[in-house]
Amino acid sequence: MELWYTEKQTDNFGITAKITETLVTEKTEFQDLAIIDTREFGRMLVLDGMVMTTIKDEFVYHEMVAHPALFTHPNPRQVLVVGGGDGGVIREVLKHPNVEKAVLVEIDGKVIEYSKRFLPEIAGWLEQPRVEVLVDDGYMHIHRNKNRYDVIMVDSTEPVGPAAPLFERGFYQGIFEALKEDGMFVAQTDNPWFKADLIRKVNRDVREIFPIVRVYGANIPTYPSGLWTFTMGSKKYDPLQVDESAIPDIPTKYYTPRLHKAAFALPRFVEEICGL
């Protein structure tokens, strides 16, 4: 008998993958969590029925959250990751020697626990000495820490359940205040095929707060539509002004110095969604 997992990404569309083994299922304090092993994408973390990461394609998302911002800011020493309990963004942040401390704030400790156990390729860097892991509410952490961080990265689920406040204007205002005077942030902002209204709202809110706002994209096969966007807000530094010849060659599978600016070249319909 064949077993398949299906994520219903809209009322009329979904993706499906053949399951080889179910490793864990648990209803945590915050969400339904599962880790399954699939034939095509390997081990897969699923929260509330949505694919968060897989062994096969995780590097795209985690590299593209971390490196565009960290190679735009000239001296990122204090970095905050909100969400991201699987540890993939932290792994990429640690590839930057200038980073003195990377703080991970994840609201659901079970995500951290099971990621360490079943996704060591992704979560294996969470116990490094430069990392501080806090099981806490990222929204509240932002508002309790003013003028502290050089770069903030929001690695959230889609805007449902505990992640819903992370897409509100008040959260972006809190990020602005938690950043130093030349700080910047980046957040995943879903896909333009099914969530155009969300992208439009986020861009409007962030543009009201930050003087420099850029949107960029990446191809992530297991995320809805495969085309994913990220929104960057910066107080001072423009990712399009970075000298790509000065970007060091670090071990990556997706991000490259040439891709740094190319990722910001958006399809016209995405530009229109963003009001560009």
List the main descriptive attributes of the protein structure presented here:
5-stranded antiparallel beta sheet, Spermidine Synthase, Chain: A, domain 2, alpha/beta, Rossmann fold, 2 domains, 276 residues, 32% strand, 9 helices, 7-stranded mixed beta sheet
List the helices and strands and how they pair.
Elements: E1 3-8, E2 14-27, E3 32-38, E4 42-47, E5 50-54, H1 58-70, E6 78-83, H2 88-93, E7 101-106, H3 109-118, H4 120-123, E8 131-135, H5 138-144, E9 149-155, H6 169-178, E10 179-188, H7 196-207, E11 212-219, E12 227-234, H8 257-262, H9 268-274
Parallel strand pairs: 6-7, 6-9, 7-8, 9-10
Antiparallel strand pairs: 1-2, 2-3, 3-4, 4-5, 10-12, 11-12
Helix pairs in contact: 5-6
Low-confidence stretches: none
According to CATH, the homologous superfamily of the largest domain is: Vaccinia Virus protein VP39
| Morphology call | globular
N to C succession of SSEs: EEEEEHEHEHHEHEHEHEEHH
Euclidean distance between termini CA atoms: 50 Å
Structure description:
The protein has 276 residues and is α/β, with parallel strands linked by helices. It folds into two domains: 52 residues, Spermidine Synthase, Chain: A, domain 2 (Roll), CATH 2.30.140; 217 residues, Rossmann fold (3-Layer(aba) Sandwich), CATH 3.40.50. The chain has nine helices and twelve strands. A hairpin with a 4-residue loop joins strand 2 and strand 3. Helix 5 packs across helix 6. The longest helix has 13 residues. The chain is globular, with a radius of gyration of 18 Å.
